[in-house]
Amino acid sequence: MEYMSQEGYDELVAELQHMVKVELPAVRDAIAEARDKGDLSENFEYHAAKREQGKLLSRISFKQKILENARVIDKSRLQSDKVGLLSKVKITNVANKCSMTYTIVNPHEADLHSGKISIKSPIAQALLGKKAGDEVMVKVPAGLMKFHIDNVEL
After folding, report:
1. What parts of the chain have a pLDDT lower than 70?
2. Domain count, the chain
């Protein structure tokens, strides 16, 4: 079961539709064009197009499985005072006083550049269930880090 936001679900559906309706026909056209060039045993374009088709079909299958198991979360049923899935958390590194804001999301929606971290990440795991004002120790590859939770919201 994959819990995700409505936005993440919609993005996944749009990405899958683009792959099926745009990318797959383009790859099939490339295969047909390469096949028309003659001997398939030494036809680089044909083999490259077939490899690309295999990768694309694998990605399509993966996205379909995610969507089959996806459950969209109703934000109104979530607790807004504790850190959980879809919580927006402002934390401060106690050592260097650097503040950052993250939204905790499903691993398939994670995007650090957008401030979305996976619920399976070490930081999110340490924050789960905590409230504003709590301090947590997080074991990261660089060692232990101490964070103060400044704010939690949905």
Report:
1. none
2. 2
